[in-house]
Write a structure and sequence with these properties.
The protein has helices spanning 2-27, 210-226; strands at 41-49, 58-73, 79-84, 88-91, 98-108, 112-127, 130-136, 140-146, 154-161, 164-171, 177-184, 187-192, 205-207, 227-237, 240-249, 255-263, 266-275, 281-288, 294-300, 303-306, 321-323, 328-335, 337-339, 351-355, 360-367, 369-378. It is mainly β. The chain has two domains: 1-32; 33-378. Strands 1, 2, 3, 4, 5, 6, 7, 8, 9, 10, 11, 12 and 13 form a 13-stranded mixed β-sheet that branches. Strand 14 (227-237) and strand 15 (240-249) form a beta hairpin.
Length: 379
């Protein structure tokens, strides 16, 4: 009898031990450690906040994200990318002065989380009651994280995703208005502390704290000190435009540049080819305006590529410029800025866009933070 009870309680103890071990593994996925990790793990959240700049009439700006990864620098100096199982869609309008937890994971204490990467899988905007597809200037973002040391058992990275939604308007052959939209991302990130356990749940939205706002402002100011637009030139020759922007990284960390926007007033010319009553081909030109007066360019190495909402094939192409400490680079474009508006089953006549000689324009650098410089167009 005593042997049976001994066996019974022995099996029960084994089962309890298995349950306890399973619970520990479930609660703490860090139990399987990679080289450079310590046994102590800290809960680490990924949170998103967003004050977007959008055209009048915009009520919804949906961002679908995926492939979130954190770059971890361990206490022994080794580093690796940690994939975080996170994807979803957020309405960026719901994050004005708010933050939303979009991912939750565990990282070793006394490590650094110095970069975050995620993919913009899709964007759509509702403007004046109509839902439009949006082309992103860059589909993959890699953002440096300020104050990256992890010292607490509960902390996180707050990503200030501050995009500009650019609206390009044109008319089709019937004179109807056609709208195209491009999302130009600008982002900064910083490690934040003093979080609550309720924020661990993915999807939790809380009021953005004043000290976190101030921290993000300091990060933007620090970026402005580090990455500067040294010079810029803009010229027009007939239908051709030349734009050159020289950048300098005077800081001590590497920065990513996604592209830039050129703001001002532009001429837009469209040429129609028609036949007269004798069957002869004729050309007729129309001058029209594109509003608002912004042209987005994506950075592809040292080249600048004009991007309108018609360039959906470019959405999945990773496009950026990496600027190392002490490095300078010149981004340039030379050619015709133009696009063809959709006309249902066919493309309309190409619209050629040119700056106006003598007018002043603003170059805005988009990436980790932003920087601006004014330039006058010459002929």
């Amino acid at each position: 009898m005593s042997k049976k009870w001994t066996l019974k309680y022995g099996l029960a103890a084994v089962l309890v031990a298995i349950v306890v071990i399973a619970a520990v593994i479930f609660v703490n996925p860090m139990s399987s450690l990679t080289p450079g990790q310590t046994s102590a793990g800290a809960s680490f959240l990924v949170m998103l906040t967003d004050p977007p700049t959008v055209p009048a009439g915009t009520t919804v700006l949906n961002l679908t994200y995926s492939d979130v990864s954190l770059h971890i620098v361990y206490s022994n100096g080794t580093s690796s990318w940690l994939p975080v199982s996170a994807s979803g869609t957020v309405n960026l309008f719901s994050l004005v002065n708010m933050s939303q937890t979009i991912a939750s994971t565990t990282v070793p204490t006394d490590s650094k989380v110095d970069k975050i990467q995620f993919t913009i899988a899709g964007v759509e905007a509702e403007v004046n009651g109509t839902l439009y597809p949006v082309t992103a200037l860059s589909s993959t973002l890699v953002i440096s994280i300020a104050n990256s040391q992890v010292n607490e058992t509960l902390s996180g990275v707050l990503v200030d995703f501050n995009p500009t939604l650019v609206e390009i308007q044109a008319t089709d052959s019937d004179g109807n208005l056609v709208n195209y939209y491009v999302l130009v991302p600008s982002a900064t990130a910083t490690v934040v502390t003093g979080l609550t356990k309720a924020q661990i749940k993915v999807g939790t939205i809380v009021q953005l704290r004043q000290n976190d706002r101030e921290r993000l402002v300091r990060v933007v100011q620090e970026f402005s000190k580090n990455v500067t637009i040294v010079s810029a030139s803009l010229s027009v020759n007939g239908n051709a435009t030349s734009l050159s922007v020289t950048l300098m990284n005077e800081g001590d960390v590497t920065f990513k540049i996604f592209g830039l926007t050129l703001h001002g007033e532009f001429n837009a010319t469209r040429t129609w080819k028609i036949k007269n009553w004798m069957g002869e081909m004729m050309r007729e030109e129309f001058i029209e305006r594109i509003h608002p007066n912004t042209i987005p360019f994506k950075a592809n190495g040292s080249s600048l590529i004009p991007l309108f909402g018609t360039n959906h094939d470019d959405h999945n192409k990773i496009s950026s410029l990496t600027l190392a400490p002490g490095e300078s680079a010149t981004l340039s474009f030379s050619g015709i800025i133009g696009f063809q508006p959709d006309m249902g089953i066919m493309k309309g006549p190409a619209i050629v866009v040119t700056p106006i000689a003598g007018n002043n324009y603003t170059v805005r650098l988009m990436g980790e933070g932003f920087e601006i410089l004014n330039v006058t167009a010459t002929s």
